[in-house]
Amino acid sequence: MTDPAAPGIAGAAQETVRAVLWQVWPMRPEHRTGVHMDARADDRAVWWCRAGVGHELVEVGELAQTPPAGSA
Description:
There is one protein chain. It contains one helix and five strands, in the order αβββββ. The protein has one helix spanning 6-21; strands at residues 27-28, 33-34, 36-39, 45-49, 55-59.
C-alpha cells in the first residue's frame, strides 16, 4: 500500500519540474516518453507508462530504486 501522501507529493513534483524546467519527469527512456502517476484499485499509486498497451513502471516512492535502462 502506498503512503497516502505519496500521490500528492509525486504529482506536485512532476508539475513543478514541468512548469519550472519545461521538462518531462519522470521519463521512460526505452520508450522516449514520460510516465504518469496512476492510483490503482489495490490502494497503490504507481508510475504508469502509456506506451503500447501501457504498463506499470514502479510504485510511487520507489522510482530511485529502479535501475537505469541497460544496467545490471
